[in-house]
Amino acid sequence: MKKTAVVIENVRPLLDCGRYAIKRLVGDPVHVTADIFKDGHDAVAAALKWRKAGAKKWRETPMNSGDDDVWSGSFAVTEIGDCEYTVEAWLDVYETWRDEFRRKHEGGQEDLRSEAKEGARILERGAKRAAGKKRAVLRDAAAELVKADNARAAALAARMDLSAIMAEYPDRSIGSEFRPYGRIMVERKAALFAAWYEFFPRSAGGRGDRGSTFRDCLGRLDDAKAMGFDVVYFPPIHPIGMTKRKGRNNALECRPGDPGVPYAIGNRHQNCPHGGGHRDVAPELGTLEDFEWLVGEAKKRGLEIALDFALNCSPDHPYVADHPEWFFHRPDGTIKYAENPPKKYEDVYPLDYHNPSWQELWNELRDVILWWAARGVRTFRVDNPHTKPVAFWEWLIAETRAKFPDLVFLSEAFTKPKMMRVLAKAGFSQSYTYFTWRNAKQELTDYLSEMSAPWSADYFRPNFFTNTPDILPFFLQQDGRAPFMIRAVLAATLSPLYGIYSGFELCENAALPGREEYLDSEKYQFKKRDWNAPGNIKGLIGRLNKARRENPALQHLTNLRFHTAENDNILFYAKATGDNVILVAVNLDPHHTHAAAVEWPLWEYGMGWDADYTVEDLLSGERWTWHGSKNYVALDPSVRVAHVFAVRR
Amino acid sequence: MKKTAVVIENVRPLLDCGRYAIKRLVGDPVHVTADIFKDGHDAVAAALKWRKAGAKKWRETPMNSGDDDVWSGSFAVTEIGDCEYTVEAWLDVYETWRDEFRRKHEGGQEDLRSEAKEGARILERGAKRAAGKKRAVLRDAAAELVKADNARAAALAARMDLSAIMAEYPDRSIGSEFRPYGRIMVERKAALFAAWYEFFPRSAGGRGDRGSTFRDCLGRLDDAKAMGFDVVYFPPIHPIGMTKRKGRNNALECRPGDPGVPYAIGNRHQNCPHGGGHRDVAPELGTLEDFEWLVGEAKKRGLEIALDFALNCSPDHPYVADHPEWFFHRPDGTIKYAENPPKKYEDVYPLDYHNPSWQELWNELRDVILWWAARGVRTFRVDNPHTKPVAFWEWLIAETRAKFPDLVFLSEAFTKPKMMRVLAKAGFSQSYTYFTWRNAKQELTDYLSEMSAPWSADYFRPNFFTNTPDILPFFLQQDGRAPFMIRAVLAATLSPLYGIYSGFELCENAALPGREEYLDSEKYQFKKRDWNAPGNIKGLIGRLNKARRENPALQHLTNLRFHTAENDNILFYAKATGDNVILVAVNLDPHHTHAAAVEWPLWEYGMGWDADYTVEDLLSGERWTWHGSKNYVALDPSVRVAHVFAVRR
């Protein structure tokens, strides 16, 4: 009971009552507030405490009180891994005494001998807790206080050095600690700031007639590097099943030579050295050694290779033969293929995550991650996580991060908002989003306002993909380069995480009629491309990625603010970090020139309301002189779709 | 892990993550919502479960799904005491099968024999869980399904009686239960709906020369009953200390015959039969038997007597001699009196709730409540609870309610908002509020909007006192009866709980100059009054209390809605419960006539937008015919300050 002598409430942040961890990057501050108060008139002190998960000892920092009993404090997380934090508050015996003594003295009370003795006793107790020189200081002050007259005692009570030492060695016997503890998942910078480039290794060579191999991928790596990307992501590279293999454009019948869908994983008949399942690479791409070589080449270039973690088993997957109990069964004992009636997906067997041997299955899937992590892969894009139990992901991410704390998982869940959010809570570092379908000014403003709000950004990190092998949005199916340029600028500047699927830079827009899907998708066939085809926007992408690298403002999420552009086709926003201020104006209409007065409250960015300043377009290198808050932009999409201005003061 | 197979989030209400209980009255509905969803396409079912605290078995009711994965359900609490509730959700195996079967059948799939067998197996398992006749129904259906053709199987899958039985005996093996549990403090009606009348028994006879006794109080009881009050509340009735006793108007020197402040409790020198402390009554008021007789007389009249629980000890309190260790000590060993430097309160010794023998002290104080509860007192007004540990109240209220679940505690904490709120969370049924100082239209609207909002009303129940022995608000110090009438109408109709301190009905307004305190306060002396003095407003109070009793709309808090009055001096609001609609228009200016068009959206109260209807003033008995939403009121404070209309359709 004494442990709740001080009220501590409303500790923020605290995700779902501490059920889940908030996310931070190494070096990030964690700002915590709490309502703290005590009965009566006693002084209260409070500390913000944190420690690595599993550690015994807390580190701590004092909290400061503000209006309405709200206290706050901050600490920085300095190491990748899991942390926990809480708030402790206690009756501050010494400050309570000081305040009472001062009020009595100033009120003219004559006999303060008893009060002085009380103070001396408190100081003596403090001395017992203190060490070395500080102990002596407190002892001396106590000895002096016992025999001091009022004026001398008041002078001692006013000594700030005594207060400081007493605060350093507090008596917390009458206090409280807040439960539940807050949790933090601390990650490396690439969990929040990275540009992703997705390509199929088998199409890397761009030959089209037959597949490329890992050894053919260096060109793509160099190109990705030249464009300024950080992460290169491969769809599944594992052996592909033959049974019910799909043909071109998702045909049910597969012709000889059709390479199959990389998501129909597993082919134990290929005599792969690691069983032909999720631990293996497709022989047509090369060997595991080839892959490890490629990972090394990427590393040399400052690139990271991300793998797809797609939990689909083809009927030829080794699990099917070795662990039929992991699958769903029909009454006749055969294994059930995937269905979404009336649709059938006979090339894939879903796993039963609740089968009686579920723990073995879960362990195996965890070990697949550990297997690739041991081979240098630290980033996984997870395919359709929303069709597997959330509890499974929470467990798997915790288990694998315990061994490799720098693992990053991207959730590919295009589904209902709450499922997308709970996957992020469960531990996914990043998430695909609805950005792909947000094109109008109001919907972009609404969606980004939600995504960048601290309550959301505390755990949900959007990765803005402009396109994917599954999605060629209608917006990009319009004529010309402008739609691609618009989406590139938006993705790269609105979000610190974004990505493109290869072909985007070539403005590829051939779709299945009436569908948001690629015609002749390389999910089902080899793809032939001229990676330097005329009309490409590699230059723009390179400049965007350079701007991102050089401007800290573009490396954060919660610093986004929308400002006024007096035209519904022009989106105008600012991102600022310290002195680095970026202003972006985008023409959302790929077909017509739009102009607008744009207005931003520069005084809220540390500038004078009528300042003259230079804005430098990081895309074109041009510079303009702007004056005050209201200025003018005109964007002709045949020339440029956007300004990405750095404000030069 | 399998226990979190379904995601359950955002269970509402849930006060501070289940740390505290929400409050309900016996018979109240508890409406619970939660976000519930599962991976994949499976059907989900959910139940809202509740039980008495300490019970093993849950009761439950199905939850229904709405938009955006929000599910909801309701149950009624039927017994005073503590309850807990949670949500359980699970994969609904049978409905998942039904849905898939239907989609395959409608999609034209030809061979459904395997699917039918699967359904039969699910029904057979259901039969094992089911009882009696229902078991047989499931068995028969399973047997039929095994051999059914597609059409026959589809007909079986469509049978709602089978769905109903399967829902009654669900397989919950793949599911989740939400933690932490929600908690509910279930109380009797008077915890939310009561009119309080406070008087000092020693002034009850109105003689003034010498004190009255319990035996003199019958007149006051009858008068309180005639005015329609429910609760009669006495300031402390215990022996009053002699040491440092205060004189009239809080004088430091006390003259012979001065009765002392009832809040300086305890006089062991008086040879009281129960020690002269908190278990005793002041001999000048009579005996414990006299008090018990008075409690009985009150009961006969349908009145309840509430006592003050004031944890102040005079230096003559028996605790001082028997348990000096329960108090604070000065370095010389003497006990410390109360201080708020430079002010001293030498007639009172504060208790040290964290002294090394704190558990003994806490037990003793708990036993004081139990002592009076055993003597028929079930309502306690607690004096200054914010100067004692919140943890102490949480413990004391839980301990005493475990023996007397019908106990009601009123928190007299005029302090910072968060402290007032946490005391309510800790278990106080009712709380004094800032209402006493809210007079203008905007501040009344703001404050009442907060008080009546469900998030607040879930645990914080305002008791609107117009005045107390400590507070004669400036508003009431203005000339005339109108200020008193205005405050009476507001208190009685805005809040289901309200109270007056005696003298209010006589419009007593003599204050200490420049202070919000009574002149010649009966806290310090006997008071002589003519309880039927001319100019009293007992008639108005009686009509208000009658209106409250007869109109359910006035017995609730969250049904308050403010509507438009086109005059800043007129407050216009509605309360509705079922068909009972009350409209109140109050002239907040006691000195001038104000008139206004008032407008209410009658269509939101189940009436036609252009209805003709009668409004009956429950204060005057007059009736008017109103038309549509916009009508007209004029309030001359010399005639009336308010209309309290019942809408008659």
How would you characterize this protein structure?
- The structure is a homodimer of 649-residue chains.
- By secondary structure, the first copy, chain A, is of the alpha/beta class.
- The first copy, chain A, contains 15 helices and 28 strands.
- Chain A has an 8-stranded parallel sheet with strand order 18-17-16-13-12-11-20-19. An 8-stranded antiparallel sheet of chain A has the order 26-25-28-23-22-21-24-27, with helices on both faces. In chain A, strands 2, 4, 5, 8, 9 and 10 form a 6-stranded mixed sheet that branches.
- In chain A, α14 (482-494) runs parallel beside α15.
Short description:
Two copies of one chain form a homodimer. With 649 residues, the first copy, chain A, is α/β, with parallel strands linked by helices.
